[in-house]
């Protein structure tokens, strides 16, 4: 099966600019996640979708971050305006059902550098 | 809230040495526990999992046992290889999946 696809792989922007990341999950996976991984740390959950509804966005900085999942398939994560501390790898993951026993399948991530 | 704590790295071992990476967790419910691995230049991938107390997850020679009494899920391998060099993440999942900070393993030939 095809894995989780993310683009772009790398992005460099200046602070206060905007940026968007795209994710295509594994076909048939109902649950989609966006994680932020700062260098040297573990991934931190930003938002979790079940089909096209938001299940958890408690750690999403909503004043600058937004995400949507169109028709319950692809998803985009946007940052506007970016800050220096947003420099990180943004990981998209999907799982078949989203229950506690379902493992996550990750994409290769987008490495964002904010200068 | 739920949390995961794992031993700091890096861990440096010689080939064929025994590996232990410690992981402890705090959870209010009954989560599932996972180990994920990130090889150089690759994305995170599942290594093994355990879904209830006393379950043992295993894969590629790695093992971890879900210990509810000590709230631990330590990763072990009897004989590491150079190809095991990677970053290992312990994680727990109930409503959402939470990761530890990761432990980098270097294996020398």
Task: Walk me through what this model shows.
The complex is a heterodimer of chains A (115) and B (109). In chain A, strands 2, 4, 5, 6, 9, 10 and 11 form a seven-stranded mixed β-sheet that branches. Chain A is built from no helices and eleven strands. The radius of gyration of chain A is 13 Å and the shape is globular. Chain A has strands at residues 5-7, 10-13, 19-24, 31-37, 44-50, 53-56, 65-69, 75-79, 88-95, 105-106, 110-114. Helices cover 0% and strands 49% of the residues of chain A. Chain A has 115 residues and is mainly beta. The relative contact order of chain A is 0.33. With 109 residues, chain B is mainly β. Chain B has strands spanning 3-6, 11-14, 19-21, 23-26, 32-38, 45-50, 56-59, 62-65, 75-77, 86-93, 97-99, 103-108. In chain B, strands 2, 5, 6, 10, 11 and 12 form a six-stranded mixed β-sheet that branches. Chain B is globular, with a radius of gyration of 13 Å. Chains A and B meet through strand 5 and strand 10 of A and strand 5, strand 6, strand 10 and strand 11 of B.
């Amino acid at each position: 099966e095809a894995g989780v696809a993310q683009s772009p792989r790398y992005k460099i922007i200046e602070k206060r600019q905007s940026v968007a990341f795209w994710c295509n999950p594994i076909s048939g996976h109902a649950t989609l996640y966006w994680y932020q991984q700062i260098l040297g740390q573990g991934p931190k959950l930003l938002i979790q979708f079940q089909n096209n509804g938001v299940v958890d966005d408690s750690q999403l900085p909503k004043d600058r971050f937004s995400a949507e999942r169109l028709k319950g398939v692809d998803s985009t994560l946007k940052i506007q305006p970016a800050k220096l501390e947003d420099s990180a790898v943004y990981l998209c993951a999907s799982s078949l059902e989203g229950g506690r026993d379902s493992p996550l399948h990750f994409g290769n991530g987008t490495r964002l550098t904010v200068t | 809230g739920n949390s995961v704590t794992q031993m700091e790295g890096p861990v440096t071992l010689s080939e064929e040495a025994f590996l232990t990476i410690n992981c402890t967790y705090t959870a209010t419910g009954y989560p599932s526990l996972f180990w994920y691995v990130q090889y150089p230049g690759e994305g995170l991938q599942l290594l093994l999992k355990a879904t209830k107390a006393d379950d043992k997850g295993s894969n590629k020679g790695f093992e971890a046992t879900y210990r509810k009494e000590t709230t631990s899920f330590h990763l072990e391998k009897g004989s590491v290889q150079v190809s095991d060099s990677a970053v290992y993440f312990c994680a727990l999942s109930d409503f959402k999946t939470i990761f530890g900070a990761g432990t980098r393993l270097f294996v020398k030939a």
